[in-house]
Amino acid sequence: MSAAIAPACAHCGLPTGDPAARFCCEGCRAVHDLLVESDLGRYYELRGERGVPQNDTRPDRRDTKWLDALEARRAVGIDRVDLDVQGLHCTACVWLIETLFARHGGTSIAINPALGRARLVVPASFDLRSFVIDVERFGYRFGPPSQRAPRRSSALLWRLGVCVAIAMNTMIFAFATYAGLRSGPIFEAFEAINLALSTIAVVVGGGVFFRAAWQSVKRGVLHLDLPIALGIALAYAGSVASFAAHRASGVFVDTLDVFIALMLLGRYLQERVLERNRLALLEDDGTSSLLARRIRNGVIETVKCIDLARGDRIVVAGGDVVSVDARLPLGARGSFSLDWLNGESTPHPFAAGDLVPAGAFSASRETITLVVERDFAHSGLADLLCAPCTRDASASRASGASRYWDLLARFYVVAVLGAAAIGFVAWMLATRDVGRAIEVTTAVLVVTCPCAFGIATPLAYDLAAVGLRREGLFVRTAGFLDRAARTKTVVFDKTGTLTSGELRVTNPEALDALDETERGALYDLASATWHPKSAAVLRALGARSASGARVEQHARGVSLRRGAHEWRLGASEWASPREPSSSALAFARDGALLATIEVDERLRRDAKAEVARLREDYDVWLLSGDDEARTRRAARAAGIDAGHAIGACSAQEKAAWIDRHDHDDLLMVGDGINDSLAVERATCGGTPAIDRPFMAARSDFYFVTPGLRPIRLALEVSRRVTRVRSRNLIFALAYNVLSVGLAYAGVMSPLLCAVLMPASSLTTVLLTVASLSSRSSIWKS
To answer: If you ran DSSP here, which 8-state letter would residue 156 be given?
Structure first.
């Protein structure tokens, strides 16, 4: 069924893809049911029609060690707590968290959704950890307060306000001149006031473009701010010269002020949505959130991973990440997942003396003590997390450095300066009047408005980013849409990207055949471990309660003794020695096989359909750290050619593959640490891993939907924006040819310029809005 006729999800409003389904994914279903059961249905009244989809939660991946330090501070009487919040989108989000806070007995809470920050005032009896866990059930995420850099858009906003106010006042004062006032004290006073106000506008608003232009010149790059800065400077200088010569026909300060205000508006649009998207995630460069519980002098203390040294003893609970290379001591054993590092979905058993690599997750429910083998600086994780981020939002390689914008800047600078020089020389030769020649030159500089890329193009990017945000994809870098339009190859990681990161039971009939006693024993065994296969069994069994029986952990599985019987769940040859070895999970009683449970990775719900649609226009590949067999199996299920599926790749091998195949036209999507190098090397990079913010910090975009549809939408929208941008430039070229012709003819008065320049800006803006907000827009399909 097409997205156009699919019913909307009852939680987020996105298409479900199934006419019989109420929800687009299990994550949305879980959050919806939780809201209704908790008597929080007013959330939907406050939120409106559309919401944000919820990914299936991974409780085994949420590390809450950062709460230890906050709880320790509260133990000595601190009653105020500052937290960062991820996932705030509207008034309903604020209301929901405030309501839950009141139910937990908090004193007061102030939430700033623009900054993603919450300030709590709590009594001594307040259970902070319980409150955090309760709120995170609804899809939000808390983290320790971070030091955020000042928002660039905030500085732009006050500059924009000042320049808009100046532009409005100068137009009022200039109206008397346009109405026929040409001399006298009032005329002179108005002219002087306008020039003074324009000087303030040039300093306050033009300074933004002067600084950026100077920085680009120092780097040897012709940034688009250069022609804007030159236009402001030369037009202001020409107006000052005409004012000094008492030639009112050459003073264009009111139009110049409008121009500065419009250019600032375009710059503000560029920054606003991108900053909002970045602030939607917990700020994290990777190392700041990696904490460890160290045992020192018999006391457990929470420290940063960079503070650990060889020989330290650390405690790892179920679901914790091992932040440094560490070794299991004598008598210890455990199970650890390596999917962060190599994409393998199945955890590995580790015995005493084995080295557990940094980045592994504990898949055991019991607490394990490890001995640090290498400090963080010498672990493989440091190379991946601490590598310089080349996709920083403020200095992205796409920010004015793409071939398109570089070519446009060169052409515009040369064309405008050439047109102004021709006008000056021609009028000097024709009239020998320096003042008149300056008037014509100033008119050329003012009327050649770069609104197509100063206002309309930022607006197009803004509309596209907002539309994609509604679909669950958040653009983080300014040049992503430019580069995405050139994409020819799309590369997916497997575990957690093409797949949901979870396993599912593929033969549920094997469980249906069990009686109630057997199902109860199986539930007890499966609930005793964080192993993904056990989690799949629990989901297949449905909601029930564990009996609390003592379950023993073994290298090949888990067992429990109930009465005269021993129950086992694990590897087939261990659970039931009489059975042949297989990759399936075996459930046995006293060595007799009761059920063979087949589990496999679950593709994202729309993976096969989206891959098929992507293959119509792009070359699609699967690049995974998991073994070749599982990689080929996932590729076959998703519809990717076997020859385009490559497994057993290390992080460095993935990056090298990207270097060989990326011809400035490749998009890489991955979620694990082993994907970070490849995502950064690719022309475009994205991630679905919103619970791993350091990946988003290295990506052009992240998406929060359970499906892959937003990736295709982003590629289609990028091409649409390119078409809109090209059409606007054609219109701008026609307008500039006409306006320069009028200036050359000597008929471009300040009044005519004050009418034409805003009119051209308004026209390009309306064309852009009509093109990207129409019913045929991609995100309304």
So the answer is: H
In the 3-class helix/strand/coil scheme, how is 633-655 assigned residue by residue? HHHHHHCCCHHHEECCCCHHHHH
Q: Each residue of 567-576: b (16+ CB within 10 Å) or e?
A: bbbbbbebbb
Instruction: Round the CA-based radius of gyration of the chain to a whole number and report it.
Output: 31
* Residues 247/238, Cβ–Cβ less than 8 Å: no
Does the structure show a pLDDT above 50 at 705?
A: yes
Residue 150 DSSP class? P
Which helix (H) or strand (E) element contains residue 415?
A: helix 403-431
Cross-strand bridge partners of residue 504: 600
pLDDT at position 595 is 92
Other CB atoms within 10 Å distance of the CB of residue 331: 7
If residue 593 lies in a helix (H) or strand (E), which one and from where to where? strand 592-597
CATH topology of domain 291-385: 2.70.150
Decide which of 3.30.750.24, 3.40.50.1000, 2.30.38.10, 3.40.50.720 is the CATH code for 476-500+604-715: 3.40.50.1000
CB 202 within 8 A of CB 240: no
| 237-290: pLDDT as tens digits | 877 877 787 766 556 777 788 888 888 887 787 777 777 776 666 655 455 567
The whole-angstrom separation of Cα 752 and Cα 756 is 6
Q: Nearest-5° angle of CA 726, CA 464, CA 224?
A: 50
For residues 89 and 51, is the Cβ–Cβ distance under 8 A?
A: yes
What is the rounded end-to-end Cα distance, in angstroms, of the chain? 13
CATH 3.30.70.100 describes domain 59-143:
yes
Contacts of 471 (CB under 8 A, 6+ apart): 14, 705, 709, 710, 713, 779
| pLDDT over 80 at 348, yes or no | no
What is the helix (H) or strand (E) element at residue 74, kind and residue range?
helix 66-75
List the structure tokens of 578: 């009489």
Strands (E), 7-88: 80-86
Which among 97, 105, 110, 109 has a CA at the least distance from the CA of 123? 105
Query: Is 548 a residue whose pLDDT tops 70?
Result: no
* Kind and range of the H or E run holding 695: helix 693-696
Higher pLDDT, 651 or 223: 651
Task: Provide the sign of the torsion angle of the four alpha carbons 430, 435, 440, 444, taken in this order.
Answer: positive
For every residue of 34-64, DSSP letters joined together read HHHHTT-THHHHHH-S-----PPP-GGG---
For 699-742, the DSSP string reads SSEEE-SSSSHHHHHHHHHHHHHHHHHHHHHHHHHHHHHHHHHH
Helix, strand or coil, per DSSP, at residue 355: strand
Sheet of 108-112: strand order equals 108-112, 117-121, 80-86, 141-143
Q: What angle do CA 472, 474, 478 make, to 5 degrees?
A: 155
Ranges of each domain in the chain: 1-56, 59-143, 152-279+394-461+718-780, 291-385, 476-500+604-715, 507-597
